[in-house]
Amino acid sequence: DSGVTQTPKHLITATGQRVTLRCSPRSGDLSVYWYQQSLDQGLQFLIQYYNGEERAKGNILERFSAQQFPDLHSELNLSSLELGDSALYFCASSEGGRFTGELFFGEGSRLTVL
Amino acid sequence: DQQVKQNSPSLSVQEGRISILNCDYTNSMFDYFLWYKKYPAEGPTFLISISSIKDKNEDGRFTVFLNKSAKHLSLHIVPSQPGDSAVYFCAASGTSNTGKLIFGQGTTLQVKP
Predict the structure, then answer these.
(1) Predicted confidence band at A7 (pLDDT cuts at 50, 70, 90)?
(2) Chain A contact for B47, CB < 8 A?
(3) Is A103 in Cβ contact with B101 (below 8 Å)?
(4) How far apart are alpha carbons B103 and B35 in whole angstroms?
(5) Concatenated DSSP letters for B16-70?
(6) A45-61: per-residue pLDDT in tens?
(7) Distance between CA atoms of A1 and B12, rounded to whole angstroms?
(8) CB nearest to A2's CB, from B43, B49, B106
(9) Are B45 and A2 within 8 A, CB to CB?
């Protein structure tokens, strides 16, 4: 158990819809990361928040947005969903500050868009 | 543009033998490399890392080698155990110190009893 909690574990929805994925980081971790893993692909970095503020951005689509709340949990919002958005979405956390290289990943949220 | 590549989708070895997983990268600015292991229905877990100032790092049965001139790193598992059967991802980090990792596609390792 990494200590990172993601909900929901599975989500099935239709094209055009909007979903919200939630992540609670490990206790004490200030940084939250979102990664997307599509079929047979490696993990693609989407975005990082550190203590409530955006720290780094990857190839995140404009239809996607994220935020980190004062209690440090984070939400990833996916809107106008397309079939290609079907993927595993991982949240990870780290202490923040200087990057030590180790991220702690949650079990992921599997999104299926029909 | 795939900056981190794992060209072998799968690898099968006998229990007790050595497993060697390979990874190539293109960006010479990467300064930190990591290996993650992933079991089905679980998130990736950190395994071992290496800084670009080193060429080898060892942790028990796991050793990572870095060849900067060839832009190549490898993970050696000796001896391999059935519990090592998983997907292994290599990842690289640049100098931005943001925690953004670039992952390879993964190699599925099967260790046969």
Answers:
(1) very high
(2) no
(3) yes
(4) 9
(5) TS-EEEEEEE--TT--EEEEEEE-TTS--EEEEEEETT-SEEEETTEEEEEETTT
(6) 999 999 999 988 988 99
(7) 27
(8) B43
(9) yes
